[in-house]
Specification:
Layout (H helix, E strand, L loop, with lengths): L4 E3 L1 H8 L34 H8 L10 E7 L2 H16 L3 E2 L8 E6 L4 H17 L3 E5 L5 H7 L5 E2 L5 H11 L23 E5 L1 E2 L10 H5 L3 E2 L2 H13 L4 E5 L14 E2 L2 E2 L2 H9 L4 E4 L12 H6 L5 E3 L7 H7 L8 H11 L4 E8 L6 H14 L3 E6 L17 H24 L5 E9 L5 E5 L10 E3 L11 E9 L4 E5 L2
The structure holds iron/sulfur cluster.
The site of iron/sulfur cluster has 10 residues, from α7.
Length: 499
């Protein structure tokens, strides 16, 4: 088994909601063009289609005599992936090699996810596998906030550290496998170690969250909002762009709240406010994509930047529901916001904006009428991309104690209805793109010359793709090209290069 695995419940949750293109390969009778390769979600991808593993292969770490090697299993969301990158970057700087398999590793770090009970089970299984295959295992990440939970199941782990406790993880690695740096060889690339392909990179701007949504235990695990200084974020972004990154994916738990904790401090000419940061990042010349933005009023200030082309016209904005009573029971931020009015105002300023969101159906107490409000809202909102989760209890979440939990079969039935509507919207929206010209970023070109690309409307891993199946000679991964869209499916597009 290769290490630097990537997956986890958040990904799986998204996968559940993404529809036919994301089903396992053996269930693809509806694929639009048989000659176009089916690219599954990462958890089902073969290794050569997994960008995390591809990246690991692109940066081989030949073992020199006596050099200690560490393996990494990274579970969970992109924020956890960024943590893994930071840990690996530090280890590389200290002279450690990164092992792509269990047998070549002197110890293995498992970066866990504890977002849902199913995530915890998956993390425990990953720890168990690492123990069985290697035996020397250090656990970190969200589930590390509950060390007894881990040691109860796996008493032989060498150390358990919590989320973003980078120093403690490094201490544990040093204790397990002392470093042996070679000053002539261990020169760290300025861009650090990246687990994503070189042409795009996640950029974490803050940790934690000040909200207390009742279904979520992230604030308990990751703490309150802690924003990075704007100049530090910008410096990291500049380095990434200097090293060939064409797209920056801004992530955090609550991107629109960026800087609130540090009172939007200005340091070295850069103010810690999402609007200022977005403008600064937009000046670097790369695509800038904003994830996990909440519908606060000041989000309106971001939309002109999208209309100007400074940041991508794309908002990943988790609405979770549309009925005000459900939102109140969830204790959601901006529960009272008139989201349809907001969406209309955004589209007035930036008609091309792509809106992605996630929703929960079957939340405790959700009535048929409340669910119907959500469906009607979706009809009106005409979102471009949606993910939908069936509500699930999470140990420690306050929503567990709410009355009137919804029966599983009702959740399933609502999920099916929701996804049917979402899919109809997606099909219509994509069909409307046929005949348009789009700038696309090439993520992959296979041996048959078929290029898997993304338009500005597609975030990696979670949205669809645009495929070019001829004329790709001379093109490379990371190139930006212009295409004319000539065909649309349920979630993907096809196009030909525009001269
Ligand atoms: S905004 Fe709500 S759902 Fe998002 S991390 Fe904070 S508490 Fe969790």
């Amino acid at each position: 088994m290769r290490l630097i695995a990537f997956g986890g419940p958040r990904c799986r949750l998204l996968q559940r909601s993404l529809g036919p293109r994301h089903r396992p390969c053996n269930s693809l009778p509806l694929l639009h063009r048989a000659r176009v390769p089916y690219i599954a979600r990462m958890s089902t991808n073969p290794p050569d289609l997994r960008p995390d593993l591809a990246r690991a292969r692109l940066t081989p770490s030949p073992k020199r005599d006596g050099q200690p090697h560490i393996g990494m299993v990274s579970l969970g969301c992109p924020k956890a992936l960024v943590d893994s990158e930071r840990i690996l970057t530090r280890l590389r700087a200290e002279g450690y090699g990164i092992s792509p398999d269990y047998t070549g590793a002197d110890a293995v770090i498992v970066n866990t996810c504890g977002f849902l009970d199913s995530a915890k089970a998956e993390s425990l299984a990953a720890i168990g596998e690492a123990l069985a295959e290697n035996g020397r295992v250090i656990v970190t990440g969200c589930l590390g906030a509950e060390p007894e939970y881990i040691t109860g199941a796996h008493p032989s782990v060498m150390a358990v550290t919590g989320p973003h406790q980078y120093e403690q993880v490094l201490d544990a690695v040093h204790a397990a496998v002392p470093p042996r740096p070679d000053p002539y060889i261990d020169l760290l690339p300025a861009s650090g170690v990246s687990l994503t392909p070189r042409h795009y990179s996640y950029l974490k701007i803050s940790e934690g969250c000040n909200h207390k949504c009742k279904f979520c235990i992230i604030p308990d695990m990751r703490g309150r909002l802690a924003s990075r200084p704007a100049h530090a974020v910008l410096r990291e972004a500049e380095k990434l762009v200097d090293n060939g990154v064409r797209e920056l994916l801004v992530i955090s738990q609550d991107t629109s709240a960026y800087g609130v904790d540090i009172k939007h401090a200005e340091e070295r000419g850069h103010r810690a406010h999402i609007t200022d940061l977005a403008r600064d990042l937009g000046s670097l010349g790369a695509w800038v994509r904003l994830h996990y933005v909440y519908p606060y009023p000041h989000v309106r200030q971001l939309i002109p930047l999208m209309a100007e082309g400074l940041v991508l016209p794309y908002l990943d904005i988790p609405f979770q529901h549309a009925h005000p009573d459900v939102l109140r029971r969830m204790a959601r931020p901006a529960a009272a916001a008139k989201t349809l009015d907001e969406i209309a105002a955004w589209r007035d300023v930036c008609p091309d904006i792509t809106l992605r969101s996630t929703f929960i159906v079957g939340y405790p107490g959700e009535t048929e009428a409340e669910f119907q409000t959500l469906l009607d809202w979706l009809d009106e909102a005409q979102l471009d991309r949606v993910g939908c989760f069936k509500y699930e209890n999470v140990a420690g979440a306050r929503s567990n104690d709410l009355p009137d939990h919804v029966a599983e079969e009702v959740k399933q039935e609502r999920w099916d209805r929701f996804m049917e509507k979402a899919q109809t919207i997606s099909v219509d929206k994509l069909a409307a793109k046929v005949g348009t010209f789009q700038d696309v970023l090439i993520d992959d070109i296979d041996e048959d010359g078929i290029a898997t690309c993304r338009t500005k409307a597609d975030a990696p891993e979670i949205d669809g793709n645009l495929f070019i199946d001829e004329g790709t000679d001379g093109l490379s991964v990371g190139d930006l090209v212009r295409v004319e869209v000539d065909e649309a499916g349920e979630y993907d597009l096809w196009g030909k290069l525009h001269a």
